[in-house]
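Lab notebook: predicted structure, single chain.

Context: the supervisor wants predicted structures on file for every construct in the current expression panel, including those that have not yet been purified. This is the next one on the list. No modifications to the sequence; it matches the entry in the shared construct table.
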Amino acid sequence: MPAFARRPVLVLSGAVALLLLAVSGRYGYHRDELYFLASGRHLAWGYPDQPPLTPLLARLMSSIAPGSLPVLRLPSDLAMGATVYLTGCTAWELGAQRSAQVLAAACLAVSAVVLAAGHLLSTTTIDLALTTAFVWLVVRILRTGRDRLWLPAGAVAGAALFDKGTIAAVVLVLVAALLVAGPRSVFRSRWWPAGAVVAAALWAPYLVWQARHGWPQLTVAGDIAGGGSGTSAPRTLFVPMLAVLVSPFLAPVWVTGLVRLLRAPALRPFRALGVAFLLLSVLVLLAGGKPYYVAGMLPLLLAAGSQPVVDWACDRPRRAALAAAFALSLPVMVVTLPLLPAATLHRTSVVALNYDAGETVGWPSYVAQIARVYDAVPAGERAAILASNYGEAGAVDRYGPASGLPRAHSGHNGYWYWGPPVGTRTVIAVGFGESFLRSAFRQVRPAGRLDNGLDVDDDEQGASIWVCGGPRAPWPEL
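Prediction complete. Output recorded below exactly as produced.
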């Protein structure tokens, strides 16, 4: 085995974590972060759209420093730094020399998926780090034959399943790939089923919750497959989006890694991992999943492709071309990170290229406008706030108390389980259509539209605010 480039890889991972921490306080909460905070106040073994790990982290970090974005996002910063470090470790496990280990870690450090996901506390961020750790452990098991490592691998997979279900697909395709491409000897080890039992035990509470509530996660998955998510993409864009996840200019590194895993005699023990990536891509594509669902295996491909790329860059022109690929990849930071002033976003294409950027601005302004409508309700009429989605409801719950607003209600995802308003006949409804509201209330009148004041075209800009009264049915029925 070559020497491990511990110091430079650590420097890269630390630089990524520090960069993400430095910009973590800019703009504001993402709609999903507002939802995680609300979910953390209603801790459960599951939610209709996610396991409980990320809401638990949101509650923990907000209890340490209430209202602090940098503290809330600290787990993501550290997770992305660890992911970069594990990429270098995986390259070492595959026999890469020091320079190639650094190259693999550097490619991931400037990747769009690490910078965009790492800026926010999300299930994607934690899942990416844990999936990378799981794949690294599998590589180590295949290299060393230390079957006892299936136990920590199972624990890591279980932790990932407690955060997001995508690693279940990774495990599924890995088992199929090992059966097809080998080495099948791993299935003769008693540690392999032991690791599976650990993973299943960690996942079990969430599965029990889903079963007791009618498997709502399947409904959410179907909605995502139908394009119902803000980050959903047509199937025709799946392959181009794969190229963008790292960088179009550095995609040749991981493509080389995939080819090498599938064909190079030196990596024959790891061939199943290349097959697993192909199977995972096909599975996600057919299921209508998002392209970044396969991102957890990209560090492996970068690790596998780094040594051939270093060997290729053997003269000055080729080294210059590699340096240019990195230089051309750096401007992605302007799109993935909140570097531009929020007031200038509407004059750029940042929001068009990065949906999540638009969802991190405007929430205090939106809640202030809802508060003005709420304050205009005649004294004696106790009003409730009804939001059309968890972003609006989460924003009211986060910023509303300072303006005297009650907690929000919504029928969207986890909010449905937290119940309807009680004992009120007047409602401030946000984001609904008029015909829908008239089917539920006898009096419906417009009270304004949301405006973030930045001219940013996000999901809430221009949403209607209504004052409704005279519900046509009891609240549980509505």
